[in-house]
């Protein structure tokens, strides 16, 4: 009886050990899985871009980077350099060309609050826009270059061609706020010239092929 009991105890310990190894995934042969997330790449262009007209101006819309909503403000951008660039381009144009009935909502959803926004709202209330711009006279977006990118703020230069084939470079800023990129107007005391006329596009510009 003692031999039988000892044999039973040894069998029980062997079974427990086997179950423990099974629950642990086979013992020492298992290894935890790891996921590698690629860092943001400001030089990578947005993918799956198509163009839509807004008030006579062609705007790039990204299937992956936004905007995902366009009524009346363009919102819903990816938290990436590509989403920031598309937000800056779309919001700048929409704020500039928004008709009288739409601009208050666009400003409320797109603009970062502050004195610059308050000043812009007061100035916009003094003018009236009731018709789209002439497509033949509007600029064509050619591309952009991100100057500085962080998860909280992006400064970039947007390059456009004008109707006389000259180049316009515009400095823009967007800020990540309330889970989206929002347009940051320049400080009222800023002396920086935000519009320049370079002789050529920079070689490291991210190109956006706009329709002609």
Molecular structure report:
This protein is of the alpha+beta class. Helices cover 27% and strands 24% of the residues. It has four helices and eight strands, in the order αββαααββββββ. The chain has helices at 2-23, 81-97, 103-110, 115-124; strands spanning 49-54, 57-62, 140-149, 153-161, 167-177, 180-183, 195-196, 206-207. The strands form two sheets. Strands 3, 4, 5, 6, 7 and 8 form a six-stranded antiparallel sheet that branches. Strands 1-2 form a two-stranded antiparallel sheet. A hairpin with a 3-residue loop joins strand 3 (140-149) and strand 4 (153-161). Helix 2 packs antiparallel against helix 3. The longest helix is centred in the first third of the chain and has 22 residues, at 2-23. It is globular. 25% of the residues are buried.
pLDDT under 50 segments (min length 5)? 1-30
Mean pLDDT: 87
Radius of gyration: 28 Å
Give the CA-CA distance, first to last residue: 96 Å
What is the global morphology?
globular
Tally of DSSP β-strands: 8
Query: Percent helix among the residues?
Result: 25-40%
Helical region count?
4
What structural class do helix, strand and pairing data support?
A: alpha+beta
Order of helices and strands: HEEHHHEEEEEE
* Largest sheet report: 6 strands, antiparallel
The share of residues in extended strands comes to 15-25%
């Amino acid at each position: 009886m003692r031999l039988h009991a000892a044999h039973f105890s040894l069998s029980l310990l062997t079974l427990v050990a086997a179950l423990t190894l099974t629950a642990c995934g086979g013992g020492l042969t298992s290894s935890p899985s790891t996921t590698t997330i690629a860092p943001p790449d400001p030089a990578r262009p947005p993918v799956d871009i198509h163009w839509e007209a807004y008030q006579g101006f062609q705007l790039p819309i990204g299937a992956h980077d936004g905007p995902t909503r366009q009524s009346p403000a363009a919102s819903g951008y990816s938290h990436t350099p590509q989403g920031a660039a598309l937000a800056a381009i779309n919001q700048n144009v929409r704020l500039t060309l928004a008709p009288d009935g739409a601009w208050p909502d666009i400003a409320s959803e797109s603009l970062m609050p502050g004195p610059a926004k308050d000043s812009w709202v007061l100035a916009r209330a003094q003018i009236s826009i009731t018709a789209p711009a002439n497509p033949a006279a509007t600029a064509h977006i050619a591309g952009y270059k991100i100057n500085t990118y962080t998860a909280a703020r992006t400064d970039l230069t947007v390059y456009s061609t004008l109707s006389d084939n000259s180049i316009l470079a515009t400095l823009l800023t967007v800020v990540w706020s309330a889970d989206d990129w929002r347009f940051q107007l320049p400080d009222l005391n800023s002396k920086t010239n935000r519009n320049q006329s370079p002789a050529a596009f920079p070689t490291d510009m991210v190109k956006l092929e706009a329709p002609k």
